[in-house]
Amino acid sequence: MTYETLDWTVDHDGIATLTLNRPEALNAFTLTMARELLDVFLTHARNDAVRAVVVTGAGRAFCAGMDLTAEGNVFGLDESLAPTPEDFRAAYDEPPYADGIRDTGGKVTLAIHALPKPVIAAINGPAVGIGATMTLAMDLRLASTKSRIGFVFGRLGIVPEACSSWFLPRIVGIQQALEWVYSADILTAEQAHAGRLVRSLHEPDDLLPVAYDLARSFVRDRSPVALGLAKQLLYRNSAAAEPLEAHLTDSLAMFWTSIGDGKEGVAAFLEKRTPRFTGKASDLPRIL
Questions:
Q1: Which stretches within the chain are classed as H helix?
Q2: Fewer beta carbons within 10 Å, N or C terminal of the chain?
């Protein structure tokens, strides 16, 4: 695929690399980048040939946040509107609210979150603002020892966006999330790791190889259907009000996988061979 702000490649194992590619601007986020990220996660990443996605940045940064040099409202919002919460909730996905009010970063993270495949952030350098919050919708975050991460919204007089008020407390806990948002400090790689924001730290040259190895370990000899459903179950049920909600969705997922790829998985186990799963992530049974 050819993009203005991104690079997209897929290797023979189905591991896709999505590179934020504005190195001269430290991969700062623009409305064009937002549109291109949406295109990737709503179309190309959903191709069944893609098994997992690794996201990184070109050059020395992951993403330095929103490009604040644009004219007018730098976030692309329509300043002529004055929505009430009731009006917005009733018609958030319709004009003029869909483009004039909805947070651009949130559209991107919702698309990442909805992808029924593993998404791994390989944070190779500074990740600030949307550069940090976009990674929260990814399933795991690995970081270079040279990375720096900042939820710096308070310094700009704005709020955490990109659905980060949902993701961040679930990843690091409410106390840590509040401290980082209140302080608006730039975190070192070690601080981000200690706060459980990132899974692991790696020397710069080791970061992508480790991310690729991890991605392959997730999808090699695995059912795309079982993987996609497991992602749905874990995200949904970790926020469910009671375990009955988990039981109901688990039950449907178990039923459909037991008569699908589960039959091949059991047969392969009994016959002591590698399974040959045929299910597709594009054809998940509905369990919600």
A1: 31-42, 85-91, 97-100, 104-114, 130-136, 153-156, 164-172, 174-183, 189-194, 204-219, 224-237, 243-258, 261-270
A2: C
What is the residue whose two structure tokens read 């992808």? 115
Peptide bond between residue 96 and the one before it cis (omega within 30 degrees of 0):
yes
Q: What is the pTM of this model?
A: 0.96
Half-sphere exposure of 288 (CA within 13 A, CB side): 12
* pLDDT by 10s per residue, the chain, length 288: 789 999 999 999 999 999 999 999 999 999 999 999 999 999 999 999 999 999 999 999 999 999 998 888 999 999 999 999 999 999 999 999 999 999 999 999 999 999 999 999 999 999 999 999 999 999 999 999 999 999 999 999 999 999 999 999 999 999 999 999 999 999 999 999 999 999 999 999 999 999 999 999 999 999 999 999 999 999 999 999 999 999 999 999 999 999 999 999 999 999 999 999 999 999 999 998
Q: Taking a C-beta distance cutoff of 8 angstroms, is the pair 51, 219 a contact?
A: yes
